[in-house]
Amino acid sequence: MSKIGGYTEARKADEKIRELCNQVKDQVETKTGKEYKQLTAILYRTQVVAGKNFLIKVDVGDPNCLHLLLYRDLSDRVEVMKVEEHKKDDPLVPF
């Protein structure tokens, strides 16, 4: 459980979260200027706002991981708000 307005605890990514990552792959590549063979969600946290924020730790197929901050609005449109690179060993915390 999370506090009202706060993020949930980190959870193992499920199929819905993996699909969400596939949906935003082009946006992530545009933000980082890199191409990725894969974006495999590992962990995620959510925050309910006027829509929903998603913090997701993603394996990109090399020894590195990304942290993604995604926002899904009330009409289900998803946008990549921020990307942090070199996060393999870092905890999944808001940024």
UniProtKB/TrEMBL annotation:
<dbReference type="InterPro" id="IPR046350">
    <property type="entry name" value="Cystatin_sf"/>
</dbReference>
<keyword id="KW-0789">Thiol protease inhibitor</keyword>
<protein>
    <recommendedName>
        <fullName>Cystatin-B</fullName>
    </recommendedName>
</protein>
<keyword id="KW-0963">Cytoplasm</keyword>
<keyword id="KW-0646">Protease inhibitor</keyword>
<dbReference type="InterPro" id="IPR001713">
    <property type="entry name" value="Prot_inh_stefin"/>
</dbReference>
<comment type="similarity">
    <text>Belongs to the cystatin family.</text>
</comment>
<dbReference type="GO" id="GO:0004869">
    <property type="term" value="F:cysteine-type endopeptidase inhibitor activity"/>
</dbReference>
<dbReference type="GO" id="GO:0071220">
    <property type="term" value="P:cellular response to bacterial lipoprotein"/>
</dbReference>
<dbReference type="InterPro" id="IPR000010">
    <property type="entry name" value="Cystatin_dom"/>
</dbReference>
<dbReference type="GO" id="GO:0002376">
    <property type="term" value="P:immune system process"/>
</dbReference>
<feature type="domain" description="Cystatin">
    <location>
        <begin position="2"/>
        <end position="89"/>
    </location>
</feature>
<dbReference type="InterPro" id="IPR018073">
    <property type="entry name" value="Prot_inh_cystat_CS"/>
</dbReference>
<dbReference type="GO" id="GO:0005829">
    <property type="term" value="C:cytosol"/>
</dbReference>
<keyword id="KW-0391">Immunity</keyword>
<dbReference type="Pfam" id="PF00031">
    <property type="entry name" value="Cystatin"/>
</dbReference>
